[in-house]
Specification:
The longest helix has 24 residues. The protein has two domains: about 70 residues, Photosynthetic Reaction Center, subunit H, domain 2 (Photosynthetic Reaction Center, Chain H, domain 2, Alpha-Beta Complex), CATH 3.90.50.10; about 70 residues, Photosynthetic Reaction Center, Chain H, domain 2 (Alpha-Beta Complex), CATH 3.90.50. The chain has three helices and 13 strands; from the N terminus they run H-E-E-E-E-E-E-H-E-E-E-E-E-E-H-E. By secondary structure, the protein is of the alpha+beta class. The relative contact order is 0.10. Helices cover about 30% and strands about 35% of the residues. The strands form two sheets. The chain has a seven-stranded mixed beta sheet with strand order 11-12-7-8-9-10-13.
Length: about 170
């Protein structure tokens, strides 16, 4: 019993330290293996760390970093990370096109993109209804599909109007 209680207490201390470390990580420098600056930590979100490079913000898993001399050590240079972000952004933009399958937050198909124009995307939902939303409300994926942060049911609730009538939603 004492061993179990001691283990639980130790676990609580470790978890408490992790939370304190998260708060202290904001503002921390991120460097590559040669010590060159990659960026700065701007936020800690769950198991991810948000990094600001010279050009971009990136949300990366905590497991991508090691602490070294009061800084976070990362396996890529700033230029390499910026390039990867730009490649991912280009692939995402390319995927957001008419005919692309739209997946909901659960990863299941919810419809297809009808049109992309004027900063908006029009989605034909599986229910037959149409939804128009800002293109910033969807994310293109490497497999050519697009993801929206809603389930099919939530999307249908957003468009509550008549089938086939484009409706603005968030």
């Amino acid at each position: 019993m004492r061993l179990i209680l001691g283990t639980i207490t130790a676990l609580g201390l470790v978890l408490g330290l992790a939370s304190a470390a998260d708060a202290q990580a904001v503002g921390m420098q991120v460097v590559d293996t040669s010590g060159a600056l990659v960026g700065t930590v701007t936020a800690v979100q769950g198991d991810n760390v948000q990094i600001k490079t010279d050009k971009h913000d990136a949300l990366l898993p905590k497991s991508s970093f090691t602490t070294s001399n009061g800084k976070l050590l990362f396996g890529m240079t700033q230029a390499q990370l910026d390039q990867k972000i730009e490649e991912a952004d280009a692939a995402s933009a390319k995927a957001i096109a008419p005919g692309a399958t739209v997946k909901g937050s659960a990863g299941t198909p919810v419809g297809k993109i009808d049109a992309v124009e004027g900063g908006n995307v029009t989605i034909s939902l599986a229910s037959g209804k149409k939804l128009q939303m800002p293109v910033t409300g969807v994310r293109g994926n490497a497999d050519g599909t697009v993801t929206v942060g809603y389930t099919a049911e939530q999307l249908d609730a957003l468009v509550g109007g008549a089938a086939g009538t484009p409706t603005s939603g968030k």
